Amino acid sequence: MFDRTERTPNRGTENNRCHDGAMDVVVSPLIASLKNPGATQLVRVASLSGFGLRDDSDGAIVADGVLSGRVLGGLCDPAILEAAADNDGRRTLETRVTDAAADAAGMVCGGTAHLLLSPIAELPAQLGEWLQAAVPVALVCAADGSPGDLVVTKREAAGDGEDDQPLLDAARDALAGGTTTSQVLTISDSTFLISTIVPSTHVVVAGSGPMAEAIAAQGRLLGWTVEINEDVDAGTSFCATAGPADGLIVLSHDRAIDVPLLDAALRSSIGYIGGMGSRGTQTARQNQLRDLGHDDQSRINGPIGLDLGSRNPAETAVAITAEFLANRTGRNAGRLTESQGPING
Length: 345
Description:
The chain is globular. It is built from ten helices and 16 strands. The protein folds into two domains: about 200 residues, no CATH class; about 130 residues, NAD(P)-binding Rossmann-like Domain (Rossmann fold, 3-Layer(aba) Sandwich), CATH 3.40.50.720. The strands form three sheets. The chain has a six-stranded mixed sheet. Strands 9-8-7-11-10 form a five-stranded antiparallel sheet. The protein is an alpha/beta fold. A hairpin with a 6-residue loop joins strand 7 and strand 8. Helix 1 packs across helix 4, helix 6 crosses helix 10 and helix 7 runs parallel beside helix 8.
């Protein structure tokens, strides 16, 4: 009776920008469903107990008995499809996964998941427009399944709570992380589920040679789109449209290339800016950028990368992409054995 779509990436939205994580295969059918919602339902992870390391970009929609997307590696699909068939409107669903089932699906351990199923028809209509334009969005709702949905972008908002500044701030803080993810936060004594849908990471590497190739290989391993390009016009155009998920890595030491690109990056909302070079090179760049009006250059990571003792391009690429991740998540990139709190994200 039930079927599911293949879990292969779509070709992106109308502007050819794919989305991050499991939501990539959800965005296109979600846009279509927002135009003609019918009985289509959105599935979000409201809370988890157990499971260990996992992909927290989980999300799915169910339309006409077909599930598009991924929730906990498909382990919850039967329960989701059965609940969706009842068509009881907005509700939460508790499902348990054994350690054996989780192990068979390649997960660390089992646990209990609380999922939120909600009718697509209840979502603000603006969501479809923003997804079509590949604008990063945050979906906000009460974690207990109470009615009401809010959609937030960096500059706009629509739906229930669009004038609630603490809620808007929390949603935009989540968007600033630059990844598709879900989190549960308590704000003003109420608990909210904030799910972000962010375009996949796009990185421009301004340089060439083994170092550029190593960074590109490491980025692609992480699912990023990496472009090696020293053209200043192309780089500045990229920076003008880049967002918190994206990055510019400048390897070139040519002042006619590195300074204009760093200038463009500092004037943009790009999430990560890195500049390779000695401390002397960094000082020379800083002086020229200061002449262009950039007194605050703290967004530039230079010398680039974490201090891992890297000695070759492959190791340096790990240090650079690790710094990118730490920058995006707001972590200090210390050793987990010396830290407290959650270890996964």
